[in-house]
């Protein structure tokens, strides 16, 4: 029998070396200014800037996109709302850094990954939250500045408290979409119709509830580690909410399209009524992803699905003809 040589004093078996748990290392710090700036840009969620296109919704519905100085005001409103949203994303990611590190996808966010230090995220987010409303008051109008300030206040309250309140969290996120749509109307002094508000509000609630439903399905059993409130919802309830919201959004849009007060159409075809077909198809197409539980990132669904993109472009074309009364 071969004898085993005794271990030298102070040495450890190789097996124990591999079994000894290592202390968790802190996230790496950014090495260069370029890396930090890149991380800040990623935290601002460029792919979600598409939501801010809603600022053109009210002017488009009123047929005012080609009015003098309208485009410049809308571009400015878009930029200011993007800055406000970036401020909220930065502060939110700084607050939720530990929860994001437990999420399979969110752990790659710059703040959670250590590319952007938490104090820097707070500082840049706070600066944007202050500067955006001030610039709006100077460059646009007091109502737009007040709306942006209210949006930031509401979203910060959501980040700290309201996102933990059942149902209120859905209402807050939905209201954020409606504020984007209202900003364009305020920038150009356009009154918002009841059908516009109903369709925009419930369309936003449809997407928000579908997002929550998808998160609940994908994170089944571990949802509490990433979004505590998901444990309070049931998938059946969230499914009910997005189905109800989709139905009301379609109803509101149909009432707008068929409203007698708009007068008879003057073109070759009833473009307003025909736009209903494309709108309903878009809702039904998006509902496919909601039903599968893969609508967790709405911007990905809208930008990556070719069929949905084609339907959306068709709706935009018909809607444009309806508003222009060609």
What does this molecule look like?
- This protein has 326 residues and is mainly α.
- The protein folds into two domains: 31-192, UbiA prenyltransferase (Tetracycline Repressor, domain 2); 194-326.
- The chain is 67% helix and 0% strand.
- It has helices spanning 14-19, 33-43, 57-61, 70-95, 97-101, 110-113, 118-139, 142-160, 168-188, 194-218, 223-226, 235-258, 271-292, 298-304, 306-324.
- Helix 4 runs antiparallel to helix 7 and helix 9 runs antiparallel to helix 10 (194-218).
- The protein starts with 13 loop residues before the first helix and ends with a helix.
Short summary of the structure?
The longest helix is centred in the first third of the chain and has 26 residues.
Instruction: Classify the helix fraction into a percent range.
Output: 55-70%
Q: How far apart, in Å, are the first and last alpha carbons?
A: 99 Å
Describe the largest sheet.
none
Class from secondary-structure proportions: mainly alpha
Low-pLDDT sequence parts: 1-26
Q: Give the CATH superfamily of the largest domain.
A: UbiA prenyltransferase
What is the 3D form?
globular
Approximate strand percentage:
under 5%
Number of helices: 15
Tell how many strands the DSSP assignment holds: 0
CATH architecture of the largest domain: Orthogonal Bundle
CATH topology of the largest domain: Tetracycline Repressor, domain 2
Which H/E pattern describes the elements?
HHHHHHHHHHHHHHH
- Structural Rg: 25 Å
The structural domain count equals: 2
Q: What is the CATH level 1 assignment of the largest domain?
A: Mainly Alpha
Mean pLDDT: 82
């Amino acid at each position: 029998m071969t004898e085993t040589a005794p271990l030298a004093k102070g040495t450890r078996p190789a097996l124990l070396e591999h079994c000894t748990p290592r202390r968790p290392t802190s996230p790496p710090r950014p090495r260069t200014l370029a890396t930090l700036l890149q991380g800040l840009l990623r935290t601002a969620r460029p792919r979600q800037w598409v939501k801010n296109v809603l600022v053109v919704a009210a002017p488009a519905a009123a047929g005012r996109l080609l009015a003098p100085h309208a485009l410049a005001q809308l571009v400015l409103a878009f930029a200011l709302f993007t800055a406000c949203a970036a401020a909220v994303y930065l502060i939110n990611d700084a607050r939720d850094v530990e929860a994001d590190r437990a999420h399979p996808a969110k752990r790659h966010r710059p703040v959670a990954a250590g590319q952007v230090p938490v104090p820097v995220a707070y500082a840049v987010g706070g600066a944007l939250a202050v500067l955006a409303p001030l610039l709006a008051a100077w460059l646009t109008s007091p109502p737009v500045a007040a709306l942006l300030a209210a949006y930031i206040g509401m979203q910060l309250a959501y980040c700290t408290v309201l996102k933990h309140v059942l149902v209120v969290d859905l209402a807050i996120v939905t209201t954020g979409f409606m504020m984007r749509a209202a900003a364009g109307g305020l920038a150009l002094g356009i009154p918002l119709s009841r059908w516009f508000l109903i369709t925009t509000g419930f369309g936003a609630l449809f997407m928000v509830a579908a997002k929550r439903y998808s998160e609940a399905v994908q994170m089944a059993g571990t949802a509490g580690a990433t979004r505590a409130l998901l444990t309070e919802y049931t998938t059946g309830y969230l499914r009910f909410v997005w189905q109800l919201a989709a139905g009301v959004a379609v109803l509101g849009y149909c009432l707008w399209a068929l409203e007698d007060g708009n007068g008879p159409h003057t073109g070759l075809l009833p473009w307003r009524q025909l736009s209903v077909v494309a709108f309903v198809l878009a809702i039904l197409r998006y509902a496919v992803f909601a039903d599968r539980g893969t609508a967790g990132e709405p911007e990905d669904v809208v930008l990556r699905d070719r069929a949905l993109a084609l339907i959306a472009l068709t709706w935009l074309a018909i809607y444009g003809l309806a508003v222009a009364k060609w």
